[in-house]
């Protein structure tokens, strides 16, 4: 889910969401609303929308009823999807509302608002920071930031990560011919952040990203694996898991991932 569906500090080439100008319709992505929906409204709306999505499946003979019943009572929420969630002012309160209802929360941020992260009134269950390039030039070419000093702000966020008590993740979305390179420079960013996990993953040629990139920009699982191995060698992290379907590898100093069961 996202509390900031139409608002973001960047216009990443690989993003699957519709961006201003994609359909000939333009809007100011940093012109924030005068007042936000309350955390309570958003949480209740998310649960209600989940039930609406599931309506009709109960009568389908092909439905796995065990999974259907489980889906009726969601317990995990990823605060990402579209937009930059740290633009939502009462983000800490939103996290609290989910936790109060027994949810785990996985917050995904592009890291351009370190001040918002530092002021969270409640930490998420797990915090992801997305990294789009190993250096400033590559980062700016692929993410097209809409705020000044975005690279510098992301580096501030990386330095902030070690202050969080929850597990932290650096997610590296890799695009062939754009940022799938220089693992030794990515390693320096990992060293700065000292995250619990590092997650190199392939760009997927889906959604509105198809207007900006080509199918050939999508790396194979093998390419991501080769990059992950080089990153492991540079950082001292080790590969502890992978998913061929998602073309993603997981690196950590841990022996196995932490699992959360609310």
General description of the model:
There is one protein chain. Strand 2, helix 4 (114-118) and strand 3 form a beta-alpha-beta unit. This protein is of the alpha/beta class. A 7-stranded mixed beta sheet has the order 1-2-3-4-5-7-6, with helices on one face. It contains 8 helices and 7 strands; from the N terminus they run H-H-E-H-E-H-E-H-H-E-H-E-H-E-E. The chain has 2 domains: 36-74; 76-252, Alpha-Beta Barrel (TIM Barrel), CATH 3.20.20.70.
Give keywords.
262 residues, alpha/beta, TIM Barrel, 7-stranded mixed beta sheet, 32% helix
State the domain count: 2
- CATH topology (level 3) name of the largest domain: TIM Barrel
- Residue runs with pLDDT of under 50 for 5 or more positions: none
CATH architecture of the largest domain: Alpha-Beta Barrel
Distance from first to last alpha carbon: 19 Å
Counting helices, strands and paired strands, the structural category is alpha/beta
Strand order of the largest sheet: 1-2-3-4-5-7-6
Highest-level CATH class of the largest domain = Alpha Beta
Count all strands and give the number.
7
Count of DSSP-assigned helices: 8
Question: What level of helicity do the residues show?
Answer: 25-40%
Summarize the helix and strand pattern as letters: HHEHEHEHHEHEHEE
How large, in whole angstroms, is the Cα Rg?
Answer: 19 Å
How much is the average pLDDT? Answer: 95
State the shape: globular
Strand content: 15-25%
CATH superfamily of the largest domain: Aldolase class I
